[in-house]
Design brief:
The complex is a heterodimer of chains A (about 800) and B (about 50). By secondary structure, chain A is an alpha+beta fold. In chain A, about 50% of the residues lie in helices and about 15% in strands. In chain A, helix 26 links the parallel strand 25 and strand 26. Chain A is elongated, with a radius of gyration of 33 Å. The two termini of chain A are about 35 Å apart. Helices cover about 75% and strands about 0% of the residues of chain B. The longest helix of chain B has 24 residues. The chains are: A alpha+beta (about 800), B mainly alpha (about 50). At the A-B interface, helix 2, helix 4, strand 3, helix 7 and helix 8 of A face helix 1 and helix 2 of B.
């Protein structure tokens, strides 16, 4: 039985006998009913044709009042010339043609909405509406009931800036391409003239026109290479632009001289084609990187940007920007804390793992501080706001991130390293050529050495890295690995040191059942009792044991705070609690149970004991389990040449216990590390040489991620870590990390192969030029051939394909 | 062959017009989103055009 809305299988418990429409979840039912009520069944026709994976619809049922707040309007809403308001919203769940169709139907569904335009690549919709007729919150609720919860997109200035950059690149390519094409056509005529002489006036016409166009191409779209070369010269660093610029300038200057003299070769068609092809390569890299950045950014746009402020006793949802010091906010169970502050009412447990790396939740009561970005895992509390935005602890960490990202020396790209030697080799060879020809035929010495500079202008070499990187980033993205730049892939290919965060990286990052030993007949009682308690340990026990518990009896539960539960069921009484408390109640815990407790404690988990009738009947361990693939993944990373270390903000004992479990010796473990300490460790590791990879998920890791050669953020990470990292792994666990390193090595292999191929071309061309046998026709045949082979090699190579060996 | 003196500027002029047209298209944002238009097309049906 498949869901009528999303076509995924319906769980057996949810099947309704006798009904035509079946739903896998409430979200799908809501959306389906809504679509039917508004006559939008065509959605299903379109969805049936759309490729790609399906997902159940997701609705939040939220009120979205915050989007009507003046602070939200100020930050996210603009005005069009004709007085309409417009906003850009990120939509969750937007994936196919059917989604585009139904979202763009908004004007028909809601009076007052004038236009809705979807951008599928960025997962956003741009809505123009008349804000006197309809409130934005109403539109957002409508989108929500269609299955697209919305979030404010990033500020429109940056989007506009990106669009401008994109358009500039396109126009540059268009100009370079048009010129290259026309110069090529004219060069055909000139090549023809080599064999059957043509009238001198036409020869001059073709040359002068080609010269004019080549100058436009060099000073227009080609300016980028000149600028890059000048910057490289000024900073005395090597850069791929330098050999390109040398070839281009030498070629155009020589061509101009020959055109004026009216004799000798010109190489304009090759030079204009080099400019065009290199620009296309750069454009492809730019697009891929932006796609990866957009995908990562989308993840943190989904983070809630609202707070529940208490105003005159009533709770109002307001945007984060509207919070000020001295406000009182309500933080419900399951919410993230919106700002730093002090609890003034209520008691709860807070999960600090994203901020500090601590895996155990901390008990918080009135008078105690809580921080923005932490997660309320217990009950409702009221917080008096003391710091907001960048003044919060998380905000200050973000400033650290920016500082380290700025200070980090860039990875020296392989292309630039090669460029350095390439320039020296070509210039040296040019001098040798000139000297050698000076003794043979002084008149031709200059011509041959300049021809050498021109024909070795490294087009294929310049494309070798970008094309391999574009292909690899694309393949990686399809496998849930988002890479923000090629430099990260190159850095990953060298062996070095991997620093792993513990909570959320090595472990799952949430409290779960890790061990259970006991009599099966107490299970229903334990689960029934824990169901009535809101505590992370209780939730872990319920999740872990429910499937085996069968039918649940009705029980009466009395909680003894900080110790455990007394459970009364018909005919039986049990107590569930800490070993110390149980020992107090039943005298002593027998040896076999003690051994289990010790084993659980040694793994860094919390033991929970169940006693009945004066004896121990069950023993559970609750903790943050390590990912199943962690141990083999770490072994694989070691085989790949990495030193694996653990760098955790959690208690050193917990860190060591987890590290031992995955096979990392305790001397490679550092626990209790503050964010600053983590940065320090990363920097010292970098000073020791080798590539330093930091892997983490929390705000506390973000600065270290930015300071490392390569920062890798893992699934479910905090916004700060996503922003700071170079690579984001969508799937949890360490398997993707191994895949990333393997993929990076294969990418590097492709880059090296590309470079060898293009260097062979350059060698051939150089040999011909040195011996005085090259002419423009030969050059313009060799150049596209070498570029074409690099393109083919790059796109046919599988860098992020599944490996045969597994993890 | 002197017709070349007419055809040459003409050909270059045409190329310039093409580049100018591309420039205008890029400036007006027609290449900002290359993913949505092909799927938006699928949703268009005759009813919408009338309405």
């Amino acid at each position: 039985m498949n869901c009528t809305h999303c076509a995924l299988p319906v769980p057996r418990a949810a099947i309704e006998p006798g009904s035509v429409a079946q739903f896998c979840c409430q979200g799908c039912r809501t959306v389906h009913d809504f679509l039917r009520a508004h006559g939008l069944e065509r959605f299903y026709e379109l969805q049936a044709d759309a490729p790609g994976p399906r997902a159940p619809a997701h609705t939040t049922g939220g009120g979205y009042e915050h989007v009507d707040h003046p602070a939200f309007r100020e930050h996210h809403v603009s005005r069009t010339l004709d007085g309409l308001a417009w906003v850009e919203l990120c939509l969750e769940g937007l994936r196919c043609a059917a989604c585009v169709w139904v979202v763009e139907r908004l004007p028909a569904l809601q009076a007052g909405v004038v236009e809705a335009r979807v951008d599928l690549g960025r997962r956003t919709v741009r809505i123009a509406w008349d804000d006197r007729r309809v409130a934005l919150s109403r539109i957002a609720r409508l989108l929500d009931s269609l299955g697209y919860p919305s979030h404010p997109a990033r500020d429109s200035d940056r989007v506009e800036q990106q669009h401008r950059e994109h358009r500039r690149l396109l126009v540059r390519i268009a100009v370079a391409g048009a010129i290259a094409g026309n110069v090529m056509v004219m060069s055909f005529a000139l090549f023809g003239g080599m064999f059957t002489p043509m009238a001198r006036e036409f020869d001059a016409l073709f040359r002068w026109t080609s010269l004019g166009l080549a100058i436009v191409s060099l000073l227009g779209p080609g300016r980028e290479f000149l600028r890059g070369a000048l910057a490289a010269l000024r900073t005395r660093t090597a850069h791929m632009d330098l050999p390109v610029a040398i070839g281009l300038v030498a070629g155009v200057a020589w061509g101009a001289a020959n055109t004026i003299r009216g004799v000798g070769h010109t190489y304009f068609e090759s030079l204009t084609a080099v400019i065009f092809l290199l620009l296309v390569g750069r454009y492809l890299v730019y697009r891929r990187q932006r796609a990866a950045e957009d995908a990562v950014e989308l993840l943190f746009r989904v983070a809630p940007a609202t707070a529940r402020r208490i105003e005159d006793g009533a709770v109002r949802e307001v945007p984060l920007e509207a919070l000020a010091c001295g406000d009182r906010v309500e933080v419900r169970a399951g919410d993230s804390v919106p700002a730093d502050g002090t609890v003034v009412d209520g008691c709860s447990r807070f999960d600090l793992s994203l901020l500090t790396g601590e895996s155990a939740p901390r008990e918080v009561g009135p008078g105690q501080r809580v921080w923005a970005g932490t997660h309320n895992a217990g009950g409702r509390v009221e917080v008096l706001v003391e710091a907001t935005g960048t003044a919060t602890r998380a905000g200050r960490l973000m400033e650290l991130v920016e500082r380290f990202a700025r200070e980090r020396p860039p990875v020296v790209r392989i292309a630039d390293r090669i460029a350095h030697r390439f320039v020296l080799a070509v210039l040296g060879l040019a001098v040798v050529t000139a000297a050698a020809w000076w003794s043979i035929d002084p008149e031709r010495a200059l011509e041959h050495s300049i021809a050498l500079l021109i024909v070795t202008c490294p087009c294929a070499l310049g494309l070798a890295t970008p094309l391999a990187v574009v292909a690899a980033i694309g393949q990686a993205a399809r496998r849930g690995i988002l890479v923000k730049g090629g430099a990260a892939l190159e850095a990953l290919a060298a062996p070095g040191c991997i620093l792993l965060d513990k909570t959320g990286t090595l472990t799952c990052g949430s409290t779960r059942l890790v061990a259970w030993e006991g009599e099966p007949d107490v299970l229903p009682l334990v689960v029934a009792a824990e169901l009535q308690v809101a505590h992370p340990i209780a939730r872990a026990l319920v999740l872990g044991l429910r499937a085996d518990a069968g039918e649940l009896p009705s029980v009466q539960v009395a909680a003894v705070p900080g110790r455990g539960l007394e459970v009364r069921a018909p005919g039986r009484e049990i107590t569930i609690g800490s070993p110390a408390w149980i020992a107090e109640r039943i005298g002593a815990i027998p040896a076999p149970a003690l051994r289990t407790i010790e084993a659980v404690t040694a793994r860094g988990a919390t033991p929970v004991v169940v006693a009945s009738g004066g004896r121990v009947v069950g023993c559970a361990g609750v903790g943050d389990p390590v990912h199943a693939d962690a141990t083999p993944a770490i072994a694989a990373l070691r085989r790949l040449g990495f030193a694996v270390r653990v760098l955790s903000g959690d208690d050193p004992r917990a860190a060591t216990a987890v590290a031992r479990e995955v096979g990392i010796p305790s001397r490679s473990v550092e626990g209790g590390a503050s964010p600053e300490r983590k940065v320090d460790v990363v920097r010292r590791a970098r000073a020791d040489g080798g590539c330093v990879i930091m892997v983490g998920d929390g705000v506390n890791d973000a600065a270290a991620l930015a300071a490392a050669d390569v920062g890798v953020a893992v699934g479910g990470g905090a916004e700060a870590s996503l922003a700071a990292a170079d690579v984001y792994l969508r799937e949890p666990g360490l398997g993707p990390l191994v895949e990333l390193v393997r993929g990076a090595r294969r990418t590097m292999h492709v880059i090296r192969r590309n470079m060898r191929v293009s260097l062979v071309y350059n060698l051939i061309a150089a040999g011909l030029a040195v011996s005085g046998r090259i002419d423009p026709l030969l050059a313009s045949i060799l150049m596209p051939l070498s570029s074409l082979s690099v393109v083919t090699l790059s796109y046919r190579s599988r860098t992020f394909a599944p490996s045969e060996t597994g993890v | 062959m002197s017709v070349l003196y007419v055809l040459f500027p003409l050909a270059l002029g045409l190329a310039a017009v093409a580049v100018a047209a591309f420039y205008w298209a890029a400036r007006s944002g027609q290449f900002d989103d290359l993913e949505t238009p092909p799927v938006r097309l699928l949703g268009d049906d005759p009813d919408d055009e009338r309405g």
